[in-house]
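User: My instructor asked us to take a sequence, write out its structure as C-alpha cells, and then describe one feature of it. I'm not sure where to start. Here is the sequence I was given:
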Amino acid sequence: MGGRLEPGVLHPQDGETRQGMVFRTAHGDETTLWACTDWEPVAHRVRYVRVTPDSRFGFVEVACRPTTDGGTEASIAYTFTALNTAGASYLSELTEDAFAHMIEGWKLRIDAWLSIKI
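Assistant: Let's start with the prediction itself. The C-alpha cells for your sequence are:
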C-alpha cells in the first residue's frame, strides 16, 4: 500500500478541490498526474482524468449518496487505456479481486484521513 496519502497539488495554489485542479500522487515507483474535469459538490459527484506516464491513461468517476443508516455509499468507476506493454501488463493484473483490494486500501486511507480531520 505504499505511497503518500496527501496529493501533491500543482494547481490551484491553495489546494482547493475544484474543476481544473491538478495534482500528483505516488505509489511505489510510479507517479500519476490527475486533473479534476467535473466537480459537482451539490450532486456529490467528481470526475478525474489521470495519467501514469509510460503506462496508462484513465478516467475515475466518484458518485456518493446517503444511506438510510446515515452513512454514505460511494460508487467508483475506473476506465483505463494502456499506453504501452507495461500498461497492458498492469491492466491484465487488475482483476476484480485486485480492484477490490485497491479500493479497500483507499477506504482505509480515507477513514484514517477523516479521523485526523474530525
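For the description part of your assignment, you could build on this observation: The CA atoms of residues 59 and 79 lie 5 Å apart. Try explaining in your own words what that tells you about the chain.
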